[in-house]
Amino acid sequence: GSLRRCLARLGALRTRPDGGHRTELHLLFDQLISESCGPEPAAAPGPQDVCAVLVQACQSVPLDQEHLVSKVCQLIHHLLNRYQVMVDEQNLNFLLSYCISALRQCSSWTHVEILQALAALVYNNGPKCQKYLPDLLGKAGLLLQFSDPAQPDVELRRAAVRSMANLCLSVPAQPYLDESYRSVCFQTFLSVLQSSKTSDVDDITFCMLLQSALKGVQSLLNGGKMKLMQTDQIGALLAVLKKCMFHGLPGLSIEVPTALYPAPLPQYDKRSPVKQEQSEPATSKHTGSRRKKCKGKQKKGEFGEEGREDPGDAGNESVLGADMLKLHLEDVQNCPCPDPRPRASDVCAGRDPLPSHATGWKGISSSESEYSDTEGGIQSKVRSYQANVRQGALACFLSTIKSIEKRVLYGYWSAFVPDAPGIGSPQSVSLMTIALKDPSPKTRACALQVLSAFLEGSKQFLSVAEDASDHKRAFTPFSVTIASSIRELHRCLLLALVAESSSQTLTQIVKCLANLVSNAPYSRLKPGLLTRVWNQIKPYISHKDVNVRVSSLTLLGAIVSVQAPLPEVQLLLQQPSSSGLNSSGSATPRRFSSCEQWRKALPWAGEGPLDHPAGCAPPEPCWLLRLCVSIIVLPREDSCSDSDANFPSLSSVYEPCPLRLEALQVLALLVKGYFPMAQSYFLELGEVACRCMEEMDPSIQLHGAKLLEELGTGVLQQHKPDS
User: Fold this and answer.
1) CA pair distance 695, 689, nearest whole angstrom
2) Per the record, where are the segments of Basic and acidic residues compositional bias (predicted)?
């Protein structure tokens, strides 16, 4: 192809004795760069051809010809990125040596292009670059010099940070960076993320600098070699992630301290939570704003006793990250985000009204199109880059959560999870702020993914939650604070559910709710939370997107399995099928509207003389049981299942396989947790299980067998003699 022709021309130029070949080299490099930026060729060149051209090009250009050095580095950058070439070790050694020598010898105006070439060369090649690490990351390493906070050229700093981030990418089954180099890189990325934008730096360049640093931190954490252990390291990283999570979010300006500090957690102490609560003073003379100060000092003292940090380091700052935020919540109407538009109004009909203080969030924008075009191309581009920073920070936060022990992570709960606002005080900023206010659906989904990971495995942490008793106390016990946070999470997630229009983000909201339901101690909280979730999730069972429907069933499964049997859930299951519907009946798919239709699908069900006493009408089955059986045994309706052709099942006679599997699992959980209610439909459920075991799909067979097993276990438990 054209690369081989260029290779031949390069060879011919190198053999020419005169110095007049510079112009031809310029023209040749321009042609190659132009082709690498143009339309995709019919056949992509092989890695050997790309490497041969790059090596030959570097051999043709001495380092004193700086314009050609700049062009050959652009060529390395473009060709490697365009054709996704992994350079072999021999050629990598030559090209890296060339770039490092060029950085040392050439003028500063060439350095950005050289660093871009370096970044492309080391990408996914870190393990092969070991012998060059002292030159790049050593005490006076080139990348450390160029990424220094004092570096006035931000483009140069960004290129150096990007090269460093690419070096940190881990390659499976290959040696990783030594601990000393990892530490140097981590500190560099941290200092970049802690820096503020100066007036002489444009928004897009600063966003790209932040993105490179966030990718670097994420690579270090994903490599699995770097575990965050030190409190100061964790606190500093979480502080910058919190700052970047809100970067450029319209209508919001926050100041985050350089480090967040964890709260002590009684759940993970050796003392029991009850004793911990009793050991707190019952009264306090401090009131109003003084009470908060007293609380902060008390917690700081506890840190000192446990030896987690030096109290002197904390200064006069409050321990909890949320208390350290200075909020400037502007009126959303004045911010440059798209005009909010009412959404999901049909879904809202017939719902339990949300608490009155929820209305402050209702004017938020959650448009499917990420950005408004009315402000011109530049503003739209800036907002796009700012959204990328927020997404990068959230992706990095997700990796951070996996690198920290849960008992350590939950010390920072109040900095990222909403709490009910006090009277007259503003709503604290949290992950839910992004889920409710960010104009980008992708960013909202990222925030919900992080919140879901935060909630996963939180059962022990949330176990101390308890609603406040009626009598007033002079201080708020820790258990009441956690209960308040659980209630606020329910409120915000249900609000997000009503407001959301993006199917992908809806799926994340419902998954997040399922994680919350699975871990919250409802037996210690006042009833009502699960009823609101139950009623508001019903319309989403018939959503056009199959993933939303599957996750909605997962949520219902979480409700019937959490701390079963719960009195509140028993009441919900006893409600007749028609309850909870609005006037249009939209809470249940149309084909489920006939009470008898699902029974007719099971020919012999309900015919036996043992089913119901003489003269008694059969009871109307509970909504959830009828729904699950209908999904499993009734043929699909195109109007309800038009969303996804990725789930073919039985020639599309039935609902998509993931939906049927989830319905089977919900039935099994229902039988396990609430057998006295489920046994009224024992024969029907047995027939469903047997039908599933006769199907061809092994996963349907397996879950049919599990349902049958739960039915059998329920019967055995019921007839077991009381011990």
Assistant:
1) 10
2) 268-278, 299-311
pLDDT of 469 strictly over 60: yes
Task: State the CATH number of the domain containing residue 132.
Answer: 1.25.10.10
Q: Identify the CA nearest to 436 among candidates 569, 533, 332.
A: 332
Supply 312's token pair. 């002197």
581: pLDDT confidence band, cut at 50, 70 and 90? very low
The residue-averaged pLDDT of 567-595 equals: 60
What does R_g of the chain's alpha carbons equal in angstroms? 31
With a CB cutoff of 8 Å and minimum separation 6, the contacts of 90 are none
State the average pLDDT for the chain: 78
Location of structure tokens 């200064």: 315
Give the largest Cα separation in the chain, rounded: 111
Total residues found in the chain within this entry: 723
Contact between residue 43 and residue 83 where contact means Cβ atoms under 8 Å apart: no
3-state helix, strand, coil in the chain (%, to 5): 60, 0, 35
Q: Supply the pTM of this predicted model.
A: 0.78
Residue 160 one-letter amino acid: A
Counting the structural domains of the chain, the total is: 2
Boundary residue ending a domain (218, 238, 272): 218
Contact in structure between 545 and 643 (CB atoms under 8 Å): yes
Say if residue 241's pLDDT is above 90.
Answer: yes
Residue 253: predicted pLDDT: 80
Q: Which domain holds residue 616?
A: 582-723
Instruction: For residue 547, give Cα distances in angstroms to 354, 510, 511, 643, 665.
Output: 26, 10, 10, 9, 16
- Name the residue among 158, 134, 138, 130 with its Cα closest to residue 146: 158
pLDDT of 39 strictly over 80: no
Taking Cα atoms as reference points, which of 288, 289, 294, 230 lies closest to residue 261? Answer: 230
CB distance 175 to 224 below 8 Å: no
Q: Which residues are CB-neighbours of 22 under 8 A, at least 6 positions away?
A: 65, 68
Whether residue 701 is contained in a domain is answered as yes
Q: Give pLDDT tens digits for 598-647.
A: 555 554 344 443 444 444 444 567 889 989 999 999 887 764 444 555 55
Alpha-carbon distance of 4 to 50, in angstroms, equals 9
Q: What is the DSSP string of 349-409?
A: TTPPPPPGGGGGGTT----SSSS-STT-HHHHHHHHHHHHHHHHHHHHHHHHHHHS-HHHH
Asked if residue 12 is part of any domain, the answer here is: yes
Inter-residue contact 208 to 244 (CB < 8 Å): no
Q: Is the pLDDT of residue 684 over 60?
A: yes
DSSP 34-83: HHHHSSPPSSPPPHHHHHHHHHHHHHH--TT-HHHHHHHHHHHHHHHHHH
Place of tokens 């994340």: 508
Helices (H) and strands (E) in the chain, counts: 33, 2
Instruction: Say if residue 618 is preceded by a cis peptide, omega within 30 of 0.
Output: no
Identify whether 133 is part of a domain. Answer: yes
Q: Which residues are within 8 A (CB) of 619 and not within 5 positions of it... i.e. 6 or more apart?
A: 680
Rounded-to-integer distance, Cα 399 and Cα 452, Å: 13
* Residue 450 identity: V
Give the domain-ending residue among 178, 199, 218: 218
pLDDT at 495: 96
CB 491 within 8 A of CB 300: no
Q: Helix, strand or coil for residue 258?
A: coil
Question: If pLDDT is split at 50, 70 and 90, which confidence band does 689 have?
Answer: very high
Backbone conformation region of residue 225, classed left if phi is above 0, alpha if psi is from -120 to 50, else beta? alpha
Measure the CA–CA gap between 70 and 74, rounded to whole angstroms: 6
* Look-up of token digits 């250009």: 61
Distance in angstroms (rounded) separating the CA atoms of residues 386 and 561: 41
> Is residue 192 within 8 Å of 161, Cβ to Cβ?
yes
433: nearest Cα among 196, 203, 251, 218: 251
